[in-house]
Structure formats: C-alpha cells, structure tokens
Amino acid sequence: MPKENRTYLSAISPISRINMLTFAMAFIGLTLSVYHYITRPRIAFVRSQELVYGYTGMQEMHNKYETQTKIWQSNVDTLKKEYQQAVEKYQDEESGLSSQEKTKRQQRLAQKQEEVASYANKVNEEAKKQEDEMLQGVLNQINTLVIDYGKSKGYDIIIGTTTDGNLLYGKDALDVTDVLLKELNKNYKK
C-alpha cells in the first residue's frame, strides 16, 4: 500500500473505521432489502368455488338451466306416461286381439319405447351441451375479470383454491375473493 494511503487510514480512528464499515454494511443491507421488496412477486389467492357460486351470473345461469331441464324432463315424463298407458291398454285388450293384431301392436309399442329412449338420450345430450356452454361463458367472464383485476392491482400471480387442495394455506390479507366477487356482481348488473 502506498505511504499516503497508510497515513490517511491511520489518521482515522478505529471507532470511525468501525462506524464507516457499519454504515456501509447497513447501506448494502438496505439496498438489498429495497431491491427484494421491489422485485418480489405480488401474490394473491381466490377461493374459486365461492367466487364461481357467489357470482350472480352463475346463479342466474344455474336457474335458467334448471328451468330448461325441468321442461325437458316434463316432456320425457309425458312420453313415458303415454307409452305406459299404451302398454296398459294393450294388456287390457290383448285377450281379444288376433295374433296378427297382437304382433302389430307389440311392434308399435317397441317402436314407441325406442322413440322415448331416443328422445330421453337426445335431451340428456342437449342438456349437457347447454350446461357446458353456459358454464364456459360464466368462467370466461370470471377469468377475464381476475386477469384485469390482477393487472390493475399489480399482482404477478393470483392462485385459485380448489377442493382438491392445491393451496393449503394463505394469509387472509392475500385473499381477494370478496373483492373480486363484488366486482363481478357489480359488472354483471351493467
């Protein structure tokens, strides 16, 4: 070390050197803390099931679906009742029918039974299709709002809880379910 530097350092008291070192370490620590705070991801979570089923749009979709399925089920029940009545009528009249007439009526009953079963299957397929489409529409609305909310609030990640337990714990302060649910229902009424 050159002589001038030794003279300068030797002129500083040991306590001052410790204070300068402490200050430098504190400054580095503060800088790292600020960097960590600025760069750490902002994370929130949402109770997915509560969000979906608390959403007015989901409730209305469910009510609409239930009304439609009741209508379809009523139609199926009417067809089954008509078929059962035709079977009972055939059984009442069977003893007075010729074998040719019995065969004809049995074929008509078998055809009617197939028609009822076919209609019931088509209704079930249509019900499933409509439920899937309606549910997807609701989920798209929810996902869009969650994305917009996350971006506007500066979140890096919003995690959804499920009954399968992919999130076992989260601080209440990180739970944005109620805020998102209020926002969803407010936007739905527009």
How does this structure look, described?
The protein is mainly alpha-helical and 190 residues long. The chain folds into two domains: 3-39; 43-188, Skp domain (Protein Binding, DinI Protein, Chain A, 2-Layer Sandwich). The chain has six helices and two strands; from the N terminus they run H-H-E-H-H-H-E-H. It has helices spanning 3-11, 14-39, 48-54, 56-93, 99-153, 177-188; strands spanning 43-47, 157-161. Strands 1-2 form a two-stranded parallel sheet. Helix 3 (48-54) runs parallel beside helix 6 and helix 4 (56-93) runs antiparallel to helix 5. The mean pLDDT is 84.
Spell out the key features of this protein.
190 residues, Protein Binding, DinI Protein, Chain A, two-stranded parallel sheet, 77% helix, rod-shaped
Strand content: 5-15%
List the secondary-structure elements in sequence, H or E. HHEHHHEH
In order across it, which strands form the biggest sheet? 1-2
Number of domains: 2
- What's the β-strand tally? 2
Helix proportion range = over 70%
For the terminal residues, how far apart are their CA atoms?
Answer: 76 Å
List the helices and strands and how they pair.
Layout (H helix, E strand, L loop, with lengths): L2 H9 L2 H26 L3 E5 H7 L1 H38 L5 H55 L3 E5 L15 H12 L2
Parallel strand pairs: 1-2
What does this entry show, briefly?
The protein has 190 residues and is mainly alpha-helical. It contains 6 helices and 2 strands; from the N terminus they run H-H-E-H-H-H-E-H.
